[in-house]
Amino acid sequence: MVDVLVIGGGNAALCAALMAREAGASVLLLEASPREWRGGNTQHTRNLRCMHDGPQDVLVDAYPEEEYWQDLLKVTGGQTDEKLARLVIRASSNCRDWMRRHGVHFQPPLSGALHVARTNAFFMGGGKALVNAYYRSAEALGVQIRYNAPVDAIELDGERFVAARIGDERIAARSCVLAAGGFESNRAWLREAWGQVNGEWVADNFLIRGTRFNMGVLLKFMIKAGADAIGDPSQSHCVAIDARAPLYDGGICTRVDCVSLGVVLNRNAERFYDEGEDFWPKRYAIWGRLVAQQPGQIGYSIIDSKAIGRFMPPVFPGIQADTLAELAQATGLDVPTFVRTIETYNAACRVGTFDHAVLDDCHTEGIAPAKSHWARPIDTPPFYAYALRPGITFTYLGLKTNEQAAVHFDGKPSPNLFVAGEMMAGNVLGKGYTAGVGMSIGTAFGRIAGTQAARSAGQPATTSHGVSHAVA
């Protein structure tokens, strides 16, 4: 019997396994995917949002706790547990040295990297390199790792973990960390969460930006077993991505980042939201849900040549035309309505000093929805269109937890069952998103869960990395 069983193979699971092993516990990690697809959604990440009170290695200026908290409060609309959120924020300030000890390298953000040079630390080689570094470190430390090991049931004795099951196989452990992700790959569950509009399942037009292996089997089992749940099943990290993206694992390269530089139209060739409401890193993750609420769950980002070179180019080129009418025709939208919408927007633009790096004074007047910033007429050919679909990265329905990362049953924390990552992110993310915070949550709670699991298994918890917590 091992001391600590970790179920999952992404960032949170790996942080938990490493912390538990550093504390002296024997650790077995079960990853549902084959080795070549290991790492869950972490393989698609690029950075970690970090609190810091002054310039630090790859981070410029300062990003203090209160500003981080206000950013999170704004995007979640207050649907967040402040105590747990501030725990994540503070933990983000002191984790990078620990990450480096396990082989993670950081780099300054590239020029034009979505205004996040001050707030986010970028991984050299992206999330895949981070995943590989953590697995190498785990193997070197003696963590046992099994691939193709999807856990489908948990054996409980009241609130206490006893064993996990993979089909007929039973795996006992003294303590356990659940870090097996959400249910974004489970189309049936997405259908149930989003329902129907005009007799059509909304979720059938969704693409899965993240891993294909997050079916939510363990999450559903735990909820049915009486674990306390938190979050709205329809809420998720949902990004507007290129409609031509693959069904699974499109990752960052399928995101369309020119929204704030133009306008977005629905299938009826009408605008439906303020494209310049705030900086793109604070708003990109609302656009998937906005598109999901439009007819046919499709939108069209429209720009002109003035925008080219000002955003990260997606993997697919946009549809190009020399006139607005030709662009409308090429996208299949009603030509007169399309042209009228763009011309009305153009006439409403009040162009001041355009600066995409600040909340500038270029705005619209007299139209709804307004465009608050970066509003310039779309009048310089060639014109471009990108068809958009909702791209689900991870879902927010999860298990309720506390500062010790314990799973709760009727409000009572388990003494030896813990949760981290996407399976509990809904405690902090009731809705919305801001770049890099998912990795902050997974890193903070993965480290806490691993520490607590080792302690629960009878190992002395480490205090050397700023993540020491008393058991509730």
Automatic annotation (TrEMBL):
Keyword annotations of the record: FAD, Flavoprotein, Oxidoreductase
Residue ranges of domain FAD-dependent oxidoreductase 2 FAD-binding in the record: 3-428
Classification via Pfam families: FAD_binding_2
GO molecular function terms listed in the Swiss-Prot or TrEMBL record: oxidoreductase activity
Entry's transmembrane regions: none
Cofactor requirement: FAD
Domain of life: Bacteria
UniProt keyword annotation of Oxidoreductase present: yes
Protein name per Swiss-Prot or TrEMBL: Tricarballylate dehydrogenase
Protein source organism: Pandoraea thiooxydans
Lineage: Bacteria, Pseudomonadati, Pseudomonadota, Betaproteobacteria, Burkholderiales
